[in-house]
Batch of 3 targets.
Target 1
Amino acid sequence: MNGNAIRVRGLRKSFGDVHALAGIDLDVRAGTVLGLLGHNGAGKTTLIRVLATVTPPTAGTAEVAGFDVSDQGLEVRRRIGLTGQFAALDEHLSGFANLVLIARLLGAGTGEARRRATELVEMFDLGDAARRRAGTYSGGMRRRIDLAASLVARPSVLFLDEPTTGLDPVGRQVLWDAVRKLVADGTTVLLTTQYLDEADQLADRIAVLDGGRVVAEGTAAELKATTGSRSLHITLAEGSEPGAAARALRDAGFSPVADGGNPRTVVVPVAEAADLVEVVRALVDGHTDIADLVFTEPTLDDVYMSLARPGTRAAADGGKSG
Amino acid sequence: MTGTVAERDAWRGGSTLGQLRTLTARQFRIVYGDRRVAFFSLLQPVIMLLLFSQVFGRMANPEVFPRGVRYIDYLAPALLVTTAIGSAQGAGLGLVRDMESGMVVRFRSLPVRLPLVLVARSLTDLVRVGLQMLAVLGCALLLLDFRPDGGAPGVLAAMLLSLVVAWSLIWVFLALGAWLRSIEVLASIGFLAVFPLMFASSAFVPLELLPRWLRIVATVNPLTYGVEASRELALGWGAGATAVAAVAASLGLTAVMAMVAVAGFRRPPGEGSTRSARRARLRAAARQQQDDEQQEAQAGQQPAALRDAPLDLAHRLPRQGPDEGVEGGPHQGARERGGKET
Ligand SMILES: Nc1ncnc2c1ncn2[C@@H]1O[C@H](COP(=O)(O)OP(=O)(O)OP(=O)(O)O)[C@@H](O)[C@H]1O
Ligand SMILES: [Mg+2]
């Protein structure tokens, strides 16, 4: 497969006066994983629901697997799997029966449906528990059956809304392996997560959502490179004034901030490694002695903090494409 | 085992009949999965029958009933119809519970024909009503010496008629559930509807015995006609004209309510009416235009769009202002700036 499995243009979704999606443009190449990051209420779930045809958009267009979500909903539904943020299981049925139910609704025969359910129960390591009523499951078990349910159809596009929330480390690893295997087979995955390491691990590209808009999009490395939160942590020698050092750095055009813990440490955000020379020169010229100097690369957390924070609408307005 | 690419999307959604069968089977497991629930749902109308026949039967003056009709003969055909109200309400409540469980979100993301979810629900509850009716009839015939003049064919006809009436009531409550989407609201409506519908009718006493105002209510209460029709068939009164009218009215009601229910059920989860959704769409369109204009106006001053040129991001993030000292963590300053710019 080639081309884009998901193509979103000018997508908007409003609930009364709440603009959950305020104009989204997004492409996901077939066979890749897009990680969707964003604070609570950024619009991640809403975007997934619109793409999965659960909710119609207010304006704009979205294509999934080549079909329009508004006009060709049935064709879209034939090709997707959805694991919502909140488990969608029949509590009265066993986990196994839930899987069989979905396979039957998809058109599988009784035998096929049971075979597929067995396969998925093994894949997610559910064992005997799969025979118990879903209503009695623990949160993590419920999550796993829910995930299995979205895979019954072997969909070409998979939507996972915070799939590993509530999973233990083993469950998380199982899910990650499953996603990697699916992607190796050509499945396209759009997943939201609050765990930045998860996005780092799984996603080919990452989009940061804020206030219903995509404020940044790129590979993890690209995003890290763009935050400018590479920084130098400079610990001053005894006898040197942190205030004087900060003044010298500001005069040289840097923006030093205090380190939360150590009063003798000054943190200087730098754009590129070459700035290191400038910083050291400014400190030497300012007659400041350096005891220790550490250069830190940004993490995805820094990207997230600088972009997706409630109230940071400056970034959102600038990031909106016209 | 995740399947090969060749198997991908192989199942495109079952046939209408297949999906209906699967969904109905699921409903059955929910309704009858718990034997205790099934038992008590059967017990309930039987208790009504025993209580009413014993309590009111004692007081019933034979002169107010047609010659040769005892109270049990008068009561049992009516209970066939009134039994349906409780089950119909149960259908509405069950639907709302289904919608709240997230199962409906799952169905909406699958190639499932949504109306079938409602049809399955109505069929399941219809079967339940049918079993309740059999329990009422069995108890009346075996324990209470119910001897209807219509004989077995009459009683069978009365039961079929009651099932048709029940089906329409089920759809009324499915429509209420699909639109109101709240167990609390539906339960209180149910309480308000069930008792007046049952008692302000000819179900338990002849219309002539009711006080004038209640008689007027009972005359407009559609259930009165269902009850009368059931009696007509079971007791062999008249030619069945009331029954024909009742069946026609019930089928008409079913058709209308089914459409209302499906329209309500199709609305996306967690949203208001379609009219408010349309209004939201219009508002959003207006706002988009406004936004676009604003954006054009700002285009000169604003830095390049972020997502088009992610690598420019570093230059977009404003540096620390000269008056902001060494105080505060690295992110606090940025947040304050962000706030100011909005
Ligand atoms: N059915 C609804 N009615 C009204 N407002 C809604 C509805 N669904 C979502 N919203 C609003 O839309 C915004 C986006 O919500 P959404 O659930 O998409 O956020 P999210 O990014 O998934 O957040 P979280 O990380 O908490 O899951 C929020 O302000 C939310 O209150
Ligand atoms: Mg969410």
Target 2
Amino acid sequence: MRDFRIVFSVLLRQRLRTMFGAKAKSGGGRIAVTVLMIFSFAVLEAMWSTACFEMLRGLDTAGRAALGLFGVFLASMVMTLFFSIASVIGTLFSANDAELLAALPLRSGAVFFARFMFVYFGELAVSLFIALPAFVCYMLIAGGGVLSVLAGVAVLLLLPALPLAVATVLALLLMRSAVFMRHRETFMTVMGFLLGITLSLGGNIIGQMTGRMGLDGITSVMSGAGDVLAGASRVFPPAAWAAEAIAADGGTASALLHGLLYLAICTAALALTGIVGSRTYSRSVFASRETAKRGGRKARLSANSMTAKNPVLACMRRERYGLFRSPTYAMNCLLGAVIFPLMILLIPFMTKASAGENLGPELAGVGAMRLFAVMLGDVPARYVFAGALGIMLFATFANIAASTAISREGEGLERLKAMPLRMSTLCYGKLIVSAAANAVTVLLTAAVLTVLLPAYWVTMLAAAFAASVAGIGTAALGMLVDAVRPKLVWQNEAEAVKQNANGFFGMLLNLLIGVLVGGAGALAAVFWGMLPGVLAAVLTAAAGSAAGVWGLGRAADKAMI
Amino acid sequence: MLRLEGITKTYAKSAVPAVKSLDLHVRRGEIFGFIGPNGAGKTTTIKMLCGILRPDEGRIEIGGADMAKDPIAAKRNFCYVPDVHDTYDRLTGQEYMDFVADVYGVPTKERRERAAKYLEMFEIADAAGERINTYSHGMKQKLLIAAALLPAPPLWVLDEPMTGLDPKSSALLKDEMRAHTAAGNTVFFSTHVLEVAEKLCDRIGIIRNGSLVAVGTLEELRGGKDESLESLFLELTEDDYA
Ligand SMILES: Nc1ncnc2c1ncn2[C@@H]1O[C@H](COP(=O)(O)OP(=O)(O)O)[C@@H](O)[C@H]1O
Ligand SMILES: [Mg+2]
């Protein structure tokens, strides 16, 4: 316990001081940034809260508000599982102070536990951001006594326990395996891909249950499935137990039972993590310190290597290596680019079983893939264009690669500043990579939509073109934020990308571009027809991107010294 | 080649300046040694002259280019080896050198020749295809030096370059420094190893608490007395804690 306290307080102090510590910024600038940050958090939370409220109210009319709560809990858990792997590995294994602490006379179990709690609180903040609004909305809509509130607080505080325990045990075991360490980048990519699919599946289960198929679909799914919560609990029981503990109104035996079940499984998971951690942590740390080495690779100084390149391309190449070769960066920055399109692709598979029949006898025999096409049968292309454009713009909404591009340089940015390299050159090199990530997302989304709606392939192509152009602008704006106020002091890579408010600012700005381009394109398409719509979208996107690129260059050269 | 005029820097939230109105002129063709106790302000000065830190006051001119007005032109005239080496460790040594060469616009033929030369010289050619995070401390230092020297700019700025180098590499680096200045170029480096400064430098500057306390050739610093640089240094920096 003493060791734990010592380590934890050191970690905490270090983190707090990097977060709030001495900044060279003037007082006014800092206040403005803080206000903007609080504002952007508030906007995002308000948007999410509204969505939660609408969803829960809709479900409440069918007497199924608890289902919404379950969905949000499940989503929060899946997100924690998915995103915490990077911070677990970052904090537990690749922290700057790993060797320092390993050399001190501290019990490794205590060090492990301190680090684990650190990750826990970080993940708790994210969980609360997602689940608290849902809980509050639920209380407003469905009501509940004091006991429900108490149950809710307990459930919310324990929300990261289960997924984090799974992620941590997984990380502990993986890090000990020499095979894994030798091929860890491949492993991470595969694992990230699998997790992405899990996430998409989870999202789709929720999407399906909370009614993506229209009102008729929901009612028939619900009436067909009997007790939906019981059905849902088959997907992932603990999330349903958590929802039941709150929903079954405190005092009842059912609530108590479910609450206890949830508490038990969380405790068991944490205990298991503690046992595995205290036994294996020190060895895992040692194993992870041994960097994979392929043995004496001589430089190739002839043939195609070491040819002179344009500095922008050199910066682009360097950015690409940096992103792809770090599992933390690859998972946080690049995986998002493929997950969203995947999620869309999975909708028809997920809905195959029920959707056709639920929509009425005449659709019962329609294959899932063609269901959308049938549903959209006589919709004019320009509406499809407006919708597809919106989806594609939304897909590129959160580009972490862009909004942490400068922060990821860390303190090593100094060395770049001593070179005859314009900071705008550096940023343009990085911009190519982030814009390419956006383009990949857009093209994948377009491909998926084309598979679903083959008749509209020309429309999709047009929308993809407009969205790709807009993607340059969104990437530039995200980077601009990071160029003006990068987070250069961090202890591990996870911190650089995850505890970085610039991710949020980037999303806010991207929302703006999305609304402008999507709005212009959709309005023009709906009112004037297809061609004006495409033109309006492409022109707005081009103008926005030109402004973004110009602004990025200016900001980089002015602000980054 | 290098001219510092009254540069001053106070770190944010610090009461005392780390460097106080420092004037210095380093001429073409000389090896200039910058010595001083730990925390005297050597690294701070070097970071300012490299354009990493912006001085609160003063002017920096490198090879005729003003660092504040035309930083890119100024930076083309020198290369910099930092005193710490972190990050970039996902790149291989060769990729990092290639990147630096691209930034300075070194043509393909020259970059291959010089890369081969320095990699062989520091005996890291065998590791150049490996990622930097597999390097030892000294290997990283060698790579940073090799990459910095690759563009062959007229001025070398080296912050504690010998730290971590094995004796052979350290001797080779000294030879390179001499050859570089013999060809009419300039070297500015900081060190706290006085023997190195004594043997290598054409001129020496001693910094204490952010101020230059002495500048000149070894003879000028001695002022006719037969003192070693060590006793001179201790004398000039002794009332630090008074
Ligand atoms: N990033 C920093 N923030 C605040 N003070 C610093 C920073 N870096 C150095 N200093 C202070 O500036 C002074 C000079 O440091 P430095 O130039 O690094 O010395 P050295 O001569 O050993 O290279 C020291 O008193 C040090 O405490
Ligand atoms: Mg120093």
Target 3
Amino acid sequence: MKSVRDMVAVISMLVDDEPGVMQRVMGEFTRKRINVETIVVGKCEKPDKARIVLSVTDPVKAQAVIEHLRMLQEVNEAETVDESRHESYLLMMNDFGKARMTGSIEELSNVIEKSQPKKYISTVSAL
Amino acid sequence: MKGAKVVVELLERQGVEVVFGIPGGVLLPLYDELVDAKFRHILARHEQCVGHMADGYARALRKPGVCIATSGPGATNLVTGVATAFMDSSPLVAITGQVATGVLGADAFQEADSFGIMMPITKHNFRVMDPKQLPKTMIRAFKIATTGRFGPVHIDIPIDVLTSDIPEKELSKDYPIPIPKRNLSQMLDAVKILESAERPAILVGGGAIWSNSGLEIIKLAEILMAPIITTLMGKGVVPDTHPLVLGVVGMHGRQGANYVLHNCDTLLAVGTRFSDRVTGKVSDFARNTKIIHVDIDASEIGKNVKGHIGLVGDAWTVTNALIAGLQSRKIKQSEWKKRIKEIKEACTCDFDLSGEPIKPQKVIKELSRYLPDDAIVTTEVGQNQMWMAHFFEMSGTRQFITSGGLGTMGFGFPASIGAKVAKPEKAVCDVAGDGSLQMVSQEFSTAVENNIPVIVCLMNNGWLGMVKQWQKLFYEKRYMATMLGRSPDFVKLAQAYGADAIRVEKPSEIKEAIKRAVKSDVAYLIDVVIDPEEDILPMIPPGKKLTDTIYGRCCFSIKG
Ligand SMILES: Cc1ncc(C[n+]2csc(CCOP(=O)(O)OP(=O)(O)O)c2C)c(N)n1
């Protein structure tokens, strides 16, 4: 069986921080029928710019969508990020309270599997 | 300066000579400024046609066409026009009015989310919320439409932005946009492959039309002794009379061209996206062919056919680079050259051109002969379009304008109006189907009112012919909703609008009708009653292989 890691591709984008950018970027994924697993969006070191980091489960499709993303006017940079720079975040809750963790994608998916939290959200970022 | 004035001023500075539009409530401030504008405004009768007119104008001149529609229904009507331009990479700047920023999002009267609606069908789109951004937006819109791969850009402008005061200095600033990079790193590989090819061919698409590279393509073909085949969108980039030109490929293409497409060992594809109408079943396409794909849009390389050499750049530049790379090399003059001649000669068909009812092919032959050598032809969608693609001869400097990507019925007539406005000295003829024309026939008003004497050559078969053909071939003639049972008298219809018109029922009358139409100084309709049972053949059924071709009257004897 493939490990979780093999199946995840992470795309990082530097974009103009303007209304409508998320809709436009997500539109590309919808049109290319690529299921987006996780999204992190936020302000970054450059003024008026934002970073979007997405993970998808199909590395081949991820590679194909990159050129399409680059064609968008508000996307300044788009690249796939290699595995060593992936960082996974987990926020989970059970009857005893809340916990947050960071780690590799694999580590955190192991945590989720073992502890079976009542509620959780996990996402992937990268720099 | 008031926002509306800024729009007009910047359109003037862009060198805009004409805009196509229909006003509405939220556009009143803009239309008030248009009273004093230096450019012409052409009032159409439907916003879809506003888009197609600007598109036809853009294609005829290879420069951006401008169209204007109001908020809500104006914008939604415009959608088909914009989407059509998008699929064929045509540079439009489409401006829509929008309700005031204060009520935007509150389902105000005539509010539609035009920004959201236009997003997937434009190269880029803007909604101007801050009046200060208006000059920047206008200037960037024109740049985006005409940089790299062309495409439509939409600007949605709320009414209060049109009435706001905008500092004049914003108008003269420079607003750069990112320029797409060329990537010719595989040039040497490409040259080596072409040089050692035994059966090379060049497939040319719309990209070569936009970058006007016909002469360069021919030069390259002559160096390589490679036949030139074109997609529907590439039709006319090279004259059909050249011995290396084999015509249009694809589902309804010339069999000679299709033979070459499927039997060459090396294919240089220039400015084409390998649409399914060209490749047939894509998994079977060109499995043993080396493909060199030239496109201005890096995202096209490997999109539909994978794993080949890609050269990213405009057709003109890359073709010239290939010429430079190959010129000094020794190209083998192989058997292939002889073969091309045989193929070109074998590509004939057998029908009785003088038979009655009139065969559509006869009409096209007559158009080929009697339209001027520099005519612009447009088509609707359906059999009329494919007959034109297959049989119309592109000689001299003729231009062929058609909705290839979206296949929009009702495109050709308004597009012909736009093209005629762009090049009033040329004869412009829309070859129409009776179904398509009825989607946009109200634009005879626009043509007559504005003295735009286009020709409409109606291939009147009483059916939605193309769909009927598919029902005939693939659904056991179970005709459903394809007979146009009650059509108007098209001659009277055109005359009611003030156009001139003639009905043609005999093959011998076609020539005279065309000659009259070309001379006419009002819009002119030729209503040609054609044989309703004539299909557009040959045809490679969808998803099938070349060997599955339905030949019809095609006599091509070198079977793939
Ligand atoms: C706007 C639009 N609606 C529907 C279609 C589907 N369609 C493709 S060809 C065709 C029939 C066209 O009929 P007509 O204009 O009479 O041309 P013909 O095929 O008879 O030459 C139809 C309905 C289309 N391409 N565009």
